[in-house]
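Please fill in the sequence for the structure shown.

STRUCTURE ENCODING:
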């Protein structure tokens, strides 16, 4: 199943026998919010409480979300954090980006496994867009949630305080392109999806252009 390029309402954008991935677009920056759901147990997790908290809370209830993961701490990805925490959902973020959130519950670290029902979501710390940017790989499935680290056509912006173009290139090359199969679908924090195979041949082009 290929990724959907535009979503205005919650839609299942990928699934297999074990997992479902739902996506909704929220806020003025067209943030993509994802819910990964175990088909066996019904348990889900939400990636990026970005905005429009009422929509997200309804989605959380419908898809049996158990917690929230933040890909990084930029304002457009965290506008609904306080409201989802107030509703009882624990919010997790990296230590490097924790101070950028209004509040949080748990800290994420590199290369650990988060269990969602029978599913396993592996954390990948990919600094560059922010110091604590994190991607999530659904183990046993060709699915990567890249936040603002990797988009169709290049890396995320590195013009912010604390960002680094050399660092994001290293993160993408060493932690995403090198280990992940070419058919891995990349679901970014904004806009349409891509695959590792579509993007990896262009790494040197990005280095040469400098962004």
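FILLED IN BY: designer on duty
SEQUENCE:
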């Amino acid at each position: 199943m290929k990724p959907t390029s535009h979503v205005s309402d919650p839609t299942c954008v990928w699934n297999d026998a074990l997992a479902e991935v739902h996506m909704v677009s929220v806020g003025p920056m067209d943030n993509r919010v994802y819910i990964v759901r175990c088909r066996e147990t019904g348990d889900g997790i939400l990636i990026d409480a970005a905005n429009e908290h009422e929509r997200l809370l309804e989605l959380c209830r419908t898809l049996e979300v158990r917690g929230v993961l933040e890909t990084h701490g930029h304002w457009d990805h965290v506008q609904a954090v306080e409201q989802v925490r107030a509703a009882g959902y624990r919010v997790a973020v990296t230590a490097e980006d924790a101070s950028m959130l209004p509040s949080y519950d748990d800290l994420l670290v590199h290369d650990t496994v988060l269990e969602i029902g029978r599913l396993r979501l592996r954390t990948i710390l990919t600094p560059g867009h922010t110091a604590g940017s994190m991607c999530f790989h659904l183990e046993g499935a060709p699915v990567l949630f890249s936040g603002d680290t990797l988009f169709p056509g290049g890396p995320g912006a590195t013009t912010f305080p604390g960002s680094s173009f050399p660092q994001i290139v290293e993160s993408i090359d060493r932690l995403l392109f090198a280990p992940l199969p070419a058919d891995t679908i990349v679901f970014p924090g904004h806009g349409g999806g891509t695959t590792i195979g579509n993007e990896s041949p262009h790494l040197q082009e990005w280095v040469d252009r400098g962004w």
